[in-house]
Amino acid sequence: MLSISTKLDHIHTDTVIDDVVSLSFDLRQKSRIRVTLQSGKEAALYMQRGTILRGGDFLRADSGEVVEVIAADQAVMIVTATTSKALTRAAYHLGNRHVPLEIGDGWLKLETDSVLKDMLLGLGVEVEELQAPFEPESGAYAGGGGHHHHHDDDHSHDHSHAHEHGHSH
User: Fold this and answer.
1) How far is CA 40 from the centre of its chain?
2) CB neighbours (10 Å) of residue 136?
3) Where does the UreE urease accessory N-terminal domain lie (predicted)?
4) Residue intervals in the chain for CATH 2.60.260.20
5) Which H or E run includes 117?
């Protein structure tokens, strides 16, 4: 079993990506977790407490292998509205409940929750449930704000970075 305890700040063009791990947002928040890599190998992640892994992050195993983190498809809701005021109102009410949100141009994404869905529908917005990666905002006090990939250099390896959501925004 691989032991992984280092998150890389960036990788270089000549860095070989040895494996991939696909994790839901809930699992990417855990500091100690056992995972199965894309290759089928088992790995134990020992991240510093408070670390939230993001899709596009890179980890180094204690034995030297580099593993890319992919945001797995999971049950989410996409919220849209016919007016910006209605969407802003929905964001306000979700924020009051400290709900993790991914914010896009004209849409909000959150983890599926039937109570929140009922509230949102009551506010007059549209809610679509689907399976898609989830990358919520990091929060105002998380340092740096927003979601940032650390791709200082181009890199290449034999898998796609396409993140199809099955819909368009």
Assistant:
1) 22
2) 19
3) 4-67
4) 2-71
5) helix 114-122
Distance CA 74, CA 134 (A): 7
The pTM is what? 0.78
CATH 3.30.70.790 region(s) of the chain?
73-133
Chain center to CA of 165? 13
Residue whose C-alpha is closest to residue 13's, from 163, 157, 160? 157
User: For 32-80, how does the pLDDT look when each residue is reduced to its tens digit (9 = 90+)?
Assistant: 999 999 999 999 999 999 999 999 999 999 999 999 999 999 999 999 9
CB-neighbour burial class of residue 4 (10 A; exposed 0-12, middle 13-18, buried 19+): buried
Question: Which residues lie across from 76 on neighbouring strands?
Answer: 111, 130
Q: Which two tokens stand for residue 31?
A: 């500091």
User: Which amino acid does the sequence have at 155?
Assistant: H
User: Is 2-71 CATH 3.20.20.10?
Assistant: no
Q: Any idea which architecture 73-133 has in CATH?
A: 2-Layer Sandwich (3.30)
Length of the chain as a residue count: 169
Q: Which amino acid is located at 90 in the chain? A: A
